[in-house]
From TrEMBL, chain A:
<dbReference type="InterPro" id="IPR036922">
    <property type="entry name" value="Rieske_2Fe-2S_sf"/>
</dbReference>
<keyword id="KW-0411">Iron-sulfur</keyword>
<dbReference type="InterPro" id="IPR017941">
    <property type="entry name" value="Rieske_2Fe-2S"/>
</dbReference>
<dbReference type="InterPro" id="IPR001663">
    <property type="entry name" value="Rng_hydr_dOase-A"/>
</dbReference>
<dbReference type="GO" id="GO:0005506">
    <property type="term" value="F:iron ion binding"/>
</dbReference>
<dbReference type="InterPro" id="IPR015879">
    <property type="entry name" value="Ring_hydroxy_dOase_asu_C_dom"/>
</dbReference>
<protein>
    <submittedName>
        <fullName>Putative iron-sulfur protein</fullName>
    </submittedName>
</protein>
<keyword id="KW-0560">Oxidoreductase</keyword>
<dbReference type="GO" id="GO:0016491">
    <property type="term" value="F:oxidoreductase activity"/>
</dbReference>
TrEMBL record, chain B:
<protein>
    <submittedName>
        <fullName>Uncharacterized protein</fullName>
    </submittedName>
</protein>
Length: 398, 122
């Protein structure tokens, strides 16, 4: 591979090298088209199968950009299905939501609308209507089950597609991206922490802030001061998805508490590790400075994997300039109190780094909305951002 | 007044018992509202005892820590919260150049860490 300063442009010349318009980040009209052409049409990652371990367990996920909330529920046959959270009676939500994500369960695997007590099973069938005889002949329970939403899984991840008839299967949608990550032990690393916040910025501003390593030396000078970006490696664009290796040189000496923690659990991004659990396509050259794989699962999920750790960022659009950010960090479940302590330390550092990452987003949005600058300039190592802009443009103008 | 107590061999850490906080939310809030001097004094007191504390709590299976050792474990968990501020942020109580910390929600934030539960457990 060419090691020139413009090697990614040389590898992917079809993306061009010109400046990128800021209009898609600030235009309410553009956002409406993104909702219609992207979030109403493609597969969206909404969780993991092991979040619903028992029959009757459910999760309701709000999808503002797809104008709905989705119930994801494990039925008596063990299968997980998805439905719009809308009652056939007068349209109320069947499960009362308490926020962006509402978890619950029912041993009988039924869901009862609080408004008038209509009961649905986890296959979506309407089972019971109080005072059913007072409805008229044209009404039948058989025709008034929950409205299904397409659901499929990959490597334990749950995906939904709210289109009536999705244009692709999940496997077709993921394509080569699935092969790239297949085999990573996501299920074994299931001790997961979740942070979230609302950020007053476009979802792509949030995506872009995380989708490069150019910022590491400046933004993370606080939390990762002994870590210097050595740039991206192994950039691979796969349809609408993209991935790369983030390479960092580590300072020789950890801080005192990091030193103790690293000895107890390889739970930090900047701790040292031994044998590899990474799939063969990840860090194929076995570089010593490989830190983690940074990938974008189009449209709104960033998936990172490393030794003993994986983490995701998701950017859920609420409005053209408002985004729900969710960060999730997964490690192997600890078996001792000291390991649990070391994980707490690693999670604290990661949370602080995320606080540093999110710090620029609202400033970027406000500055873009001023229209003082109407385009942005990307360097070669910001290719994931360029690819993102090109893909969004293709979808919106399709 | 606090009714938290420590094992005799760690009795010298008693002045820091206000840092013995069960949840991540409580520890983060206490750290954010502490003074630079308080952070430094806490860090300096706990760091040399960290490995001894962890060795003691590791005598019990995760999730089965005797009640009387919870304050000690909560203390060392506060060190995990405080350490970056002394080691990396020049003693500042807040994360420098960061998003508003109070707007970040940790879904596990109200859980007692000493119980050894999954962060997603209710």
């Amino acid at each position: 591979m060419s090691e020139t300063v413009h090697r990614w442009m040389e590898q992917y010349p079809e993306l061009g090298s010109g400046p990128i318009s800021t209009e898609p980040y600030i235009s309410p009209e553009w956002y409406e088209r993104e909702k219609e052409k992207i979030f109403h049409k493609v597969w969206l990652c909404v969780g993991r199968e092991n979040e619903l371990p028992k029959v009757g367990d459910y999760k309701v996920k709000r999808l503002a950009a797809a104008d709905t909330s989705v119930i994801i529920v494990r039925a008596k046959d063990g299968k997980i299905r998805a439905f719009h959270n809308a009652c056939a009676h007068r349209g109320n939500t069947v499960i009362t939501e308490t926020g962006e994500e509402t978890y619950g369960g029912s041993k009988a695997a039924i869901m009862t609308c609080r408004f008038h007590g209509w009961v649905y099973d986890a296959e979506g069938q309407l089972k019971q209507v109080p005072s059913e005889q007072r409805f008229y002949d044209c009404f039948s329970k058989e025709k008034n089950g929950l409205t299904p939403v397409h659901l499929d899984t990959w490597q334990g991840f749950l995906f939904v597609n709210v289109a009536e008839q999705p244009e692709t299967t999940l496997a077709e949608f993921l394509g080569e991206y699935a092969n790239h990550f297949n085999g990573f032990p996501f299920d074994e690393l299931d001790f997961g922490f979740t942070y979230y916040t609302y950020v007053d910025c476009n979802w792509k501003v949030a995506h872009d802030a995380f989708a490069e390593a150019y910022h590491v030396d400046t933004i993370h000078a606080g939390s990762f001061p002994n870590v210097f970006s050595t740039g991206l490696q192994n950039v691979k664009l796969m349809g609408p998805h993209r991935t790369c290796a983030v390479c960092l040189t580590l300072g020789a000496k950890p801080t005192p508490v990091s030193g103790i923690a690293n000895g107890l659990a390889g739970a930090s991004l900047v701790s040292q590790r031994g044998e590899s659990m990474l799939p063969p396509a990840i860090n194929p050259d076995k570089r010593d400075d490989f830190a983690f794989e940074l990938s974008v699962l189009f449209p709104n999920t960033l998936l990172h994997i490393s030794e003993g750790i994986w983490f995701t960022h998701q950017f859920w659009p609420i409005a053209h300039n408002k985004t729900l950010w969710e960060g999730r960090y997964y490690v192997k479940a600890p078996t001792t109190h000291s390991q649990r302590w070391a994980i707490e330390h690693a999670m604290t550092l990661q949370r602080n780094a995320w606080l540093e990452d999110t710090a620029t987003m609202e400033d970027t949005q406000r500055a873009m909305q001023s229209r003082a600058k109407v385009e942005q300039h990307l360097q070669d190592d910001e290719i994931l951002i360029r690819h993102g802009a090109v893909v969004v443009d293709q979808f919106v103008n399709a | 007044m606090t009714n938290k107590s420590l094992p005799p061999e760690f009795a010298d850490l008693a002045p820091f018992l206000d840092w013995a906080l069960a949840t991540a939310d409580e520890r983060y809030a206490y750290r954010r509202n502490a003074s630079r001097a308080e952070l430094k004094a806490f860090y300096d007191a706990i760091l040399p005892r960290t490995e001894a504390i962890l060795a003691l709590v590791d005598q019990y299976p995760l999730g089965a820590l005797p009640e009387e050792l919870h304050p000690l474990y909560h203390l060392v968990l506060s060190l995990a919260e405080v350490a970056p501020h002394i080691e990396l942020y020049g003693g500042a109580p807040g994360v420098p150049y960061a998003f508003d910390e109070t707007r970040f929600v940790a879904t596990h934030g109200a859980q007692d860490t000493a119980l050894g539960l999954s962060p997603t457990a209710a």
